[in-house]
Structures are given as C-alpha cells and as structure tokens.
Amino acid sequence: MLTKQRTQVLEEVEKLLLVWLNEKQLAGDSVSEAMICEKARKLHSDLLQRSPSTTAASDEFKASRGWFEKFRRRSGIHSVIRHGEASSSDKAAAEVYKLDFAEFMKTEGYVPQQVFNCDETGLFWKKMPNRTYITQEEKALPGHKPMKDRLTLLLCANASADLKIKPLLVYHSQTPRAFREQNVNKARLPVMWRANAKAWVTRQLFMEWLHEVFAPTVRKYLSDNQLPERCLLLMDNAPAHPPALVDDMDAEYDFIKVKFLPPNTTPLLQPMDQQVICNFKKLYTKALFTRCFNVTKETSLTLKDFWKKHFNVAHCINLIDKAWEEVTPRTLNSAWRKLWPECVAEREHDIEVPDAEVVEEIVSMGKSMGLDVDGADVEELVEEHREELTTEELSELHSEQQKALLEEHSTEEEEEREEVSSDAIKSIMQKWNECHDFFEKHHPNITVVNRVLNLMNDNVVSHFRRVMQRRKRQVTLDRFFSKTEPAARRQRREETPEGDPPDVLMEGDSPSKQ
Fold first, then answer.
1. pTM as predicted
2. CB neighbours of residue 235 within 10 Å
3. Closest by alpha carbon to 266, among 168, 329, 339, 319?
4. Mind listing the pLDDT tens digit for each residue in 299-319?
C-alpha cells in the first residue's frame, strides 16, 4: 500500500513536470538536469502537502540521477540543456550578431518589406488581473481557475510593418464545444487553427503554417508590390524551428531564406520581444474588458454570468484578431531598432497610442463595471504570462488539457457516428485484453507499459465500455418492462407505431387522470 501511494504521487509529479517543461520551452528558457530535479522535488513536496494521509516514507524522494535518467527515458525528452531565452542574456554575443547581421543585410540587399520576424507566445486567454474583484457580486472573480486555460500564438510581421501574417493558433482541442455549438468553420477563422494535447507549436505545425500561410501570403505581397521574389525569415532556435528545417522545405519555397538568432539573445534582439508581444497582450486585455463592458451594459447578464457561460475560445479568437489588428506599424517597425536600426523609419504623422493610454482605458472600463483594478494590476497580468506557474496552476493546466481530450469524444460526436454492433465491440475488447496481458508480460519496462495502457484505457477503451454498459442497462430495462406489464398492454405497446409511445403503467401504479 505504501509503494502504491508513493507511486501515485510520483506519477502526478512527472505529469506536472512535463507540463512545466512545455511551459519553459514555450517561454524559450534554458533547462538543465539540475533545474528539472529541483522542480521535481518542489512538486513532490507541494503534492504531499495536499495529501495528509501520505506517510512520511514518501518524503524520501530525492530526485536522484537514477530517477532523472528513468524519467528522461519514460518521457522521451532528448536534451534538457538547450539554448533559448534565459535569465542571463548573452550581451557580448548580441553585439557580435548585430554587426554580422548588418553586414549580411548589406551583402544580400534585402529591403525592410522582405524581412520578417516570427515568435511564439503563450496566452492565458481567460485570465484577468489577480486583484480584480467583482465588488458588487462577490469578492473573487468567478471561474478564476479556468483562466489558466492557455493557447499558443505564433505572430509574424515584416520590418516595414505593412504586412502582418495570419497568426498560427495552437489549442489543446481540435474542435472545442463552442465551435460545435456555433458551427464555426475553422478554415475561415482569422487564425490558422491547429491543436495538440500540449497546445504547443510543434515542428510539424510550424511547417504547415510556413507552407500554407506564410509562403503564399508573402509571395502575393511581393508580387503586388513589384518586389523580387525573395524574403528573409528571422527567428530564434526554438524546438519547433531548428536549423535543419530549411532542408524540409520543398523547392517551391526556396525563395524563403531562414536566419536564426544566436542562443540567449532573444530578449536583447528578437523584434517581436521588443514590446510587440507585450503591446499585443495589453490590447487583447483591452478588447476583453471592452467585451465584458458592452455585454453587461447592453444585456441583463451580470459579469458573473457572462464570464462563466458566455465567453469561450470562439469569442477569444475575435479578440485576438482585433488586438493583432490594433498593433500599430510604428510598434512593429520600432521593434527592429536594436537589431537593424537602419530600417526604422521616422514617422511624423503616424500616431502611436502609448501603452500607458491602453492601460488607462482598461482600468477605466474595469472601474465602470465595479472592478477594483489599477494600472499596476494590468502590467502585472502581462508580465505573468512570462512567470513560472505554481504547482496548483500546473495542475489546472494539466486538467484543462485532459478535459479537452475527453471533450473531443463528447456525447454529441458519439451520436453522429455510425453505431457499432455489440458483437464487434465484444470482439475487439477481447483482443485488447489479450494485447494488454501480452504487453504487461513481455515488455521490459513495466512503467512505460502501465503509462501507455492507462492512457489508452482512459481515453479510448473507456468509451466502448460505456457504450456496452448503456446497452446493457437498456436491455435490462426492456426485460423489466416486459415482465411487469400486463399481456394486453404489452401487445398494444408492441403494435403502436414508432414515434407515438403509449403510457406504460407499472403494476401497483395508479392510473393517471385522462
């Protein structure tokens, strides 16, 4: 029993550790073995505090080198020390790269219209500032936990700031319930919608965006502006776009030149990281507050009702589109000042809305809705997108991801599928049990086997078990009614046309008034 409790805690530790690793990867942070072990110990300690019944022996988890190696093999992480955004930026490397970049641009002869930058960012799309209160309804904003629901955006624009590329949006559900209820056509969204369990931009999804969105959009833009068909795409060395990705591109896309920023220079040089993403998130928050304000002002809905029942990811996409549209050319162009100052234009007539003014609008709308919010809260919210999630927040995010997986197989979709015969289900279930026994008996790593089999059981096999249970209950009910009904009534029921069911009077019941 002791081992089982300890194993359950460690299983939860490793699940949350993978979520944490994905969040670090999304932020572009470097991760080492020591950092992973330290985080594992912290998660273990936090989870033990939630489970008072867990015995003291469980405190002996030390996240040893042996544990790490087993975790690395089980989880499939290949390298835990990689380059990217880090707390200690490499200023010397950044200065060298600036000189190299200037020489490269001079040699290649690119103009600002041909040079693009892209970067990923996480967006907690349903989150408001921590100290936002609904003073007239309740102290804490309702539904605060689901605000940890995250999606990932890939934003891209050129240095001249006259072309914004359709963003790539990655969520953890391919067809959210809101899409089904509103009959959303994903092909017509203002974003390229993709999904995976981690809501993370993978190499495959990045290549799809590159081929299906970036390349055709840029090609048409260059043609319309009578520019040579060649462009440069600058980005960091995140896992989704490693240096070898150029080799995966077809000859059709050879007009795209890819250049990477050096390790640990993203905060110093990456244009999208120079207030563009920060400004976008403030504009998103402004759009979110505006929607809250308009809905509660023009309808009888309270903010509590709106937030819990009338704001979903489909609405979120419209706010993303609005916020991205409102990022100004000056903001996009000025973002290149550190890396390529020669391309930054002096705009006398281009009116820039200061970030401070956007924050003031958010605060003003918040107060008009009875919310206790100030500018510091809004600034903190934008910065929180970069902060490390707590154990509780990691658990919430993991739960959201698991819930989305189950939602993909919701009742609505089940009813649309062609019904499978009970005999076919029984047959495949028998084969599954045989496979289950075979894997457990012969696979050398029982931990991997259990993890995969549990995932299969929870997300696939359980569906067919529920189908069989539902049919079994129905058969039992039918037999019960057949035994308890008087023969004459049973005959009349069987002869009644479908769609016009007769009253069923159970023995001992009183007849209803006609």
1. 0.66
2. 23
3. 339
4. 888 777 787 778 899 999 999
